[in-house]
Amino acid sequence: MRTLSSCSFVSDRQGRNCDKSTDVSCFKILYLVLTATVLQFSPAYSQEINPSISNSKSSFEVALSGYVQLDAIIPFAVSPQKDHPDLTLRRARLALKTTFTEWLLLKSEINIDDAGNAQATSLYLEYAAADSYPRVRLGQFKTPNSLDYLTSSRHISTIERSQFTNIFEFDRRVGTAVFSDSESHTWNAGLFAGNIHTDPFSSGMAAATRLTYAPVSTASRVIHLGASARYRKNQRFCEADSLPFDQVETVTEGFGDSCNGMQKSDLFVGIENAILFSKFWVSGEIGVLAGLGTEQAAEERLHGGYIEAGYAFGGTKTYTDGAFGLPSIDRSLMRGGPGAYFFVLRYDNAEISHSGGSKETFTVGLDWWATRNLQMRMNLYRTLKKPDPALDTANTEEASTGLSLRLQAQF
Length: 411
Description:
This protein has 411 residues and is mainly beta. It has helices spanning 20-40, 147-150, 163-167, 295-298; strands spanning 52-54, 61-78, 88-101, 104-112, 118-128, 135-142, 172-181, 185-192, 205-217, 221-235, 240-242, 250-252, 264-277, 280-292, 301-313, 315-316, 319-320, 323-324, 328-329, 340-351, 358-369, 374-386, 398-410. It has a single domain, classed as Porin (Beta Barrel). Strand 21 (358-369) and strand 22 form a beta hairpin. The chain starts with 19 loop residues before the first helix and ends with a strand.
């Protein structure tokens, strides 16, 4: 991962004092926090998210939105020792939503990395004949899998998504899908090629579907039940990636005999549940990725999942269209209030090797939504990498502990 400077927040158990390079990093974070706060209180930032430019004589409307996420990691204990970024531009997104008529819209979103490179993340047309009819989407967008994956990174409960969303390679793909939703249920299904940036029509195909049902769905109470599945063909099954809070990437052998092979297929099946009761919420998922096509692949499976529970002070977590949305705030700083605080506990476990290696993460998180546009997050994490017993007879574990921070501004 590219960093913005050469210094780092590294502290060991002996409690080393900050050196000059660390002081520079601390000043950099303080400067960015103050800048974001000043912008937050400017008139331009006091408006609602997604301001629109509309023509009163027609249904034509243009809505511009965007957000920036700056991350910092302070590792307390890391094994093995790894370099960590002191401050990283994690995401910078700019989205444009154009509504041509009541039944046709275009959405485009680009991501700008810390080197200034821009890439399209979402780019699609959506058609809806009427409110009671399904919507049809064509272009690049997320495959319909997983509550955690389909919830925007702005609104997930912890800084990092569950590990299985990375290991099972949920992604955006070029394709077409049908979406149907109501107050109590959502259903979508689609056929996809590859990602628009990786030769999409020569890098395999996928078919995915998701169904959710909310037997209770009110402003203060929600019960969410869901399941999804995805079939992929002609994929590389030689590696599985896990990127937990410590930003240490794990690459292990997975499906297939060769990393150069594009010959096999796999099937993901997952279930998801969530309950929101006033200020309290609990949610969890579990999924299985199984190889298909050969006798060896049929015996290879990866499992992953998480469970979390949280409580909100001064606000509530929200739910819409089968995913978590922008939290509500009782009284923001703009209105003379304290903002909203969200406390969460999460346990995450995923296999990173089909023969038994796994990584689990324990997280304690605290979010402060100062306003609808400005958020600060702190996650105390501990990750344990458990070795593949077939490859590590010593059965040694690797642990990482630290604090992950995020500043997020959006409009």
